[in-house]
Specification:
single chain; mainly alpha; two-stranded antiparallel sheet; 4 strands
């Protein structure tokens, strides 16, 4: 594998991101990944979205705009480690797909990530309004957005968290818990690894906080992910080693997939 481009995971300290103007569009991502073979390249995803209109948009401009949002959030390029890993795990478990999309969006979108700390701290059943989500983002980026953009961010992030399963409802949204499915947890652990965490510390990162689970549940689901071959997990004598041999395999292996 070539060196990981750490720009693929945004720093989170600079305002901006797709959720300023759009949502996670998990439905569109699902349609696109269903229509394009796994080993395809970025140009194939664009052709499917724009020329073949697998996203079902009414105009060519609408197709291009939606594809641009999807590329910003998910990269859609198998030569980028983050997208290839997500794509590897995508078909393993349909219930993990919204979680994989949400984790990728957190890595790519500062606004969505800024809304996470407050949203994830809400107890199950608590009401979550668009204004509340706007407040979470404004706390991270004070005075960065005018009133209209801030309000739109609140609506978009509320929709995005509904798509990941963390919120439910339409007019009134309430918090619900999500479980760390093995495929999604493997991706969360990989994101921590790409940022330099190792061993036991991989169980306690901003990426594992995405799941509503304690350390013991995270560790147990990591064991299942290891059994399924998503990661390599060795634990004993208080020492945890987690490897990602398959997800971080050399890029030239793309030609053999």
């Amino acid at each position: 594998m070539g060196p990981f481009d750490d720009r693929d995971i945004v720093s989170g300290h600079v305002p901006g991101g797709t959720n300023t103007s759009h949502t996670l569009a998990v439905g569109h991502l699902t349609s696109l990944l269903s229509a394009v073979p796994k080993a395809s390249g970025l140009a194939d995803y664009e052709t499917a979205a724009v020329e073949h209109n697998v996203l079902g948009r009414a105009t060519t401009e609408g197709r291009r705009r939606t594809f641009r949002y999807l590329r910003e959030l998910y990269l859609l390029d198998p030569n980028r480690v983050m997208f290839r890993a997500m794509r590897d795990l995508w078909d393993e478990d349909e219930q993990s797909q919204p979680l994989l999309a949400g984790l990728s969006a957190m890595a790519r979108d500062s606004v969505f990530r800024a809304s996470a700390a407050g949203l994830l701290a809400l107890s199950e059943g608590a009401e979550a309004t668009a204004g509340m989500l706007t407040g979470f983002v404004e706390a991270a980026f004070p005075h960065a957005y005018n009133e209209a953009t801030a309000a739109k961010i609140g609506r978009n992030t509320a929709s995005s968290w509904t798509q990941t399963g963390h919120l439910r409802g339409r007019a009134k949204k309430t918090r619900q818990t999500v479980e760390p499915r093995p495929a999604a947890l493997a991706f969360a652990l990989l994101l921590g690894h790409l940022q330099g965490a190792r061993g036991q510390s991989l169980y306690d990162t901003q990426w594992t906080a995405f799941f509503d689970a304690g350390a013991r549940e995270i560790e147990a689901i990591a064991g299942v992910a290891g059994q399924r071959g998503y990661i390599e997990l060795r634990s004993g004598g208080g020492i945890v080693e987690i490897g990602f041999r398959h997800l971080l395999r050399p890029m030239e292996d793309l030609t053999n997939e």
